[in-house]
Write a structure and sequence with these properties.
Elements (H helix, E strand, L loop, with lengths): L19 E8 L6 E3 L3 E6 L6 E3 L5 E8 L8 E4 L7 E8 L3 E7 L1 H12 L2 H4 L2 H6 L6 E4 L13 E5 L12 E2 L6 E7 L2 H4 E3 L9 E15 L1 H10 L3 E16 L5 E5 L7 E10 L17 E8 L2 E9 L5 H10 L38 E4 L25 E7 L7 E16 L4 E5 L1
Antiparallel strand pairs: 1-14, 2-14, 3-12, 4-11, 4-14, 5-10, 5-14, 6-9, 6-13, 7-8, 7-12, 15-22, 16-21, 17-20, 17-22, 18-19, 18-21, 22-23
Length: 434
Amino acid sequence: MAATTQKLNYASAPPRATSSRALRNEVIPSNGNSFTLNNTIIFDLPANLNNTFWDVQSSYISLDIINNNLTAANSANFEGGGFPSCIKRIAIEIGGGQTLMSCDNWNALYQAMFDLDTAGQFRSNAGKVLFGSADAVKGGALATNTVAQGGGTKVKVCFPLVLTPLMNSKYWPLMSRERIRIRIELDTAVRSLIGGAAVVADSDIVIDNVKLVQYNLELGSSVMAQVAESSGGTFKIACPNYQSHQATLAAGASSLSATLGFSMSSLNRVIVCQQLQTAVFSASVIGNRSQADLERFSLSVGGVKYPQIDLKDDGGGAEILAEALVSQNSLTSWGHQSSIDIGGGFAFNEPTGAGGADNATGHYLIDLNLESQRIAGGEAGMGLVSGLNTVGQTVQAQFDYSNGLTVPHILNIFAEHTVLCMLDLNSLTWSIAV
């Protein structure tokens, strides 16, 4: 047959799916169903589910939240990224208590990636409805429960478990002997919300009706046997994972050398958020990131510098942003959706975030890619593991500043690395290789 477009190939039709069914379940927290900020929410997912896999990308957490202060003047808004910016730490355990992930200051990472990778249209439309985001520094408002309102109006939010190793390209097996535990630690109101002059207490922000809406795939016995046989008796899942380190940049400092303690076989990228040390309730905290008169940045692994030539910033941030887009595999994707310069604030030097105003809040970040082969998706639809091996190596970040800051800053430094999770189908137990 002569070469023609696939639009003329009428002999081709999609194959019918094998014997299976989709199940929608709701998992409620194991430690209660009413929480406040600065509390911890724990989900224990069921185990020993024969032939069953979790479709994480189709699942989400749903909850109701309200400002229960009883005083209308004590208002509060989410940060621009919505409710997920209230999550300080996410920890995930599999296989009888093995820690798969434990990332502190997760909300700083989330807000940085949300700014870098989401368009204003999503933030002010679907994101606004789902979890209270906005195409601005200040996100959706939490209704104030005043006496006159007779109970107020709760805000319903729904959000997926992004920036976790569970969110990968494969279904997550649920037939293991031990349960999966997801621990979500909420931040304080002062750090994670934008309010007025009067501070709202953590206990005033009430969260209830919490559930994990879980979509599962159940295979027929014969299909499950084929999947198990083709895997060689072990399900292997390569996952992106995140660790955090925090360093302090003193006022007036002209340089900082931070030893990070990142020990992993594939360090793929390092992300840095420079943020004010002092949290103010009436200002953006999690979403406010300073350029801080940064002049040079580099990373050292076992005495070898990466990149070989320092990243430099003349104050405008163009080179730093270019490297961030390289890390995102989107430097030449001019249709890439981003909201990194809201209010012209990507390269604000030392923004206060006052009032959550767009023109008073910065969105600066450093995102350094360390993979030797940057292949988006890979030739066979699977990315390569090509990050730096830092096991047994000293990892240091070096920052040089042209002028001393007027107030101290916190540097939240995140490592994205690859972990390999393996489920033995004979013992039905997990093992983790970092």
